[in-house]
Give the backbone structure.
Amino acid sequence: MSNEETLFEFPCEFPLKVMGRHDAEFENHVRDIIARHVDEEEILESKSRPSNNGNFLSITVTIQAQSKQQLDRLYIELNASDAVLMTL
């Protein structure tokens, strides 16, 4: 493998799961971050689901990832956000 070791072959479909507190702004906040790194036509699917008690929200966005660098930048920005509790 090259310097950019990865098991993925790009481009590829990549599901990204982001979790945070369930409030009015969280979903828009996550979508804004994703939009800075992924073109609109590369967003293949998006769904959200509240936790059983409704305190948390899980957002799963499947994208057409173009490179490891794109995913790295996306994860770095999502994890730097105070609103994001976890990214998988």
